[in-house]
Amino acid sequence: MARSGEQWWRDAVIYQVYPRSWADSDGDGIGDLPGITARLPHLADLGVDAVWLSPFYTSPQHDAGYDVADYRDVDPVFGDLADFDTLTSRAHELGLRVIVDIVPNHSSHEHPWFRAALASTPGSPERARYIFRDGRGDGTLPPNNWQSLFGGPAWTRATEPDGSPGQWYLHLFDTTQPDFDWTNPEVRAELEDVLRFWLDRGVDGFRIDVAHGLVKADGLPDSEFDQYTEPTALAPMWDQPGVHDIYRSWRTITDSYAVEGQDADRILCAEAWVLPAEALARYVRKDELHQSFNFEYLMTPWLAADQRATITHSLAQAEAVGAPQTWVLSNHDVVRHATRLGFPQTPGLERIDGIGTDDPQPDTAVGLRRSRAATAVMLALPGSAYLFQGEELGLPEATRLPDEARQDPTFARTQGASKGRDGCRVPVPWEADAPSYGFGPGDRSWLPQPAEYGPLAADRQRGAEGSTLELYRGLLRLRRELRLGRGRLAWLDGFPDDALAFTVTSPDGSVTVLANLGETPLALPEGSTILAASEPLELGATLTTDVTVWLTT
Ligand code: GLC
């Protein structure tokens, strides 16, 4: 843990557990809270500071729990509140903080509020908690042209209690995820109370789902927004100025739980897919959130010029508002970086969509090598880093899942045009020789595990020299010893353009990082000692392509 009074989150490494897929205690093929508790020593041993749990709340699971029906309870598939309390206290005993997900943009259609909204009439207070509108024309056309992020229109027509076709409700995601109306004070009060409920149970913070989506532009105007080229705020459903008021208010709540002298800050981290970086930095101004995910970094190709540019301006934007930058390469919504980087890299933003059997397949060896090199760059960077379960094993995306097995609503809503996100959500292999690779006591697994997961199981890698698991452990140990997360980065001159070369210096030490993204082997600087390397490397050797090394300075 960070030392007292030091704002632990400024350099924390936070490990994301996707509860369905990490560890299954009861053999039903779906991971659960007792399973997580039993495996927590893996995280203590890995050397991370905190665990972030994706949603485990009561939910019909139409979007794997990001469709919440009861914000104050645990879904029976994952356990119960007592299991959550056990998990939290075990994590705390092991020195791990616990971050939970909060989903404030929308609820499940099974939430009592939404059921009440459907059972009431247009204009009622029950409807006013969601975004209901009359349709255009004779009422048969959606109120505007917005599209759901999962494909198809962002509006669904409700049936009125008397059985007649009625108003439409907005859902930026699945039909079963109606958007709340955040202009309604009742919505604000309710979600603030949910924050307090989990804070009172001892959580150390929240990851805020779709943090940039809560406020919609007045009048809900039509939009032809292009998310890859335009500033996000030009879209009437994203990054509207009003979201910042919400987070100022949330910050006063988390601040009220801080305990003087105990480094007990409770934190808020935004999942906000917002461009440009200046706009994203507004979420982490002093009186707002502590962190926001740096997705631009995640989407930056493994090309030296692009990496340098993203790292440089990411650091500058965060520093301008006094926040730590965050770094992330994988999560439950994108193709795992061991696979993403196995495709040819081209300038611009990276492909993050799911991959199917008919799609071009990655070069897995190249992907793994580059992902290890990229992680070795990331874990040296100043700020806080997020890891996604299984990346410490070098897990690739499952790119050949049968279509019948797919469960992400995106797949069905796009009629298969988008494969969806199941490929990164496949249950984690713990034991190479056990059924379901030790995910659960039996052989069940809610998504099929590919055969290549066996040799990558944690038990094969623990203690094995050169394994990805040992690489992560070593990097995390050094990062902590040298307090690199508190350091300052300086780029080094005199290296080829296709190399990344920088030092990070903290009050407790420093490191020189060299990454060779080019074809020509690179000589290591005279007199330096190797502290860590993303591939086995002898002193006096050259740095070959896609290898990162940490050196003494
Ligand atoms: C976020 C989550 C994603 C979910 C969506 C809707 O982007 O990370 O998994 O589908 O929000 O809640």
Structure in words:
The chain is an alpha/beta fold. It contains 13 helices and 20 strands. Strands 11-10-9-5-2-1-13-12 form an eight-stranded parallel sheet. A five-stranded antiparallel sheet has the order 14-15-16-20-18. Helix 5 links the parallel strand 9 (205-208) and strand 10. Helix 4 packs parallel to helix 5. It is globular. It starts with 12 loop residues before the first strand and ends with a strand. The relative contact order is 0.11. The mean pLDDT is 96. Alpha-D-glucopyranose (GLC) binds at residues 63, 66, 103, 173, 209-210, 271, 332-333.
N-C termini distance: 26 Å
CA-based gyration radius: 23 Å
The parts where pLDDT drops under 50 for at least 5 residues are none
The unique ligands bound to this protein are: alpha-D-glucopyranose
The share of residues in helices is 10-25%
Number of helices: 13
Secondary structure category: alpha/beta
Largest sheet: 8 strands, parallel
Beta strands, count: 20
Strand content: 15-25%
In order across it, which strands form the biggest sheet? Answer: 11-10-9-5-2-1-13-12
Shape: globular
Rounded mean pLDDT is 96
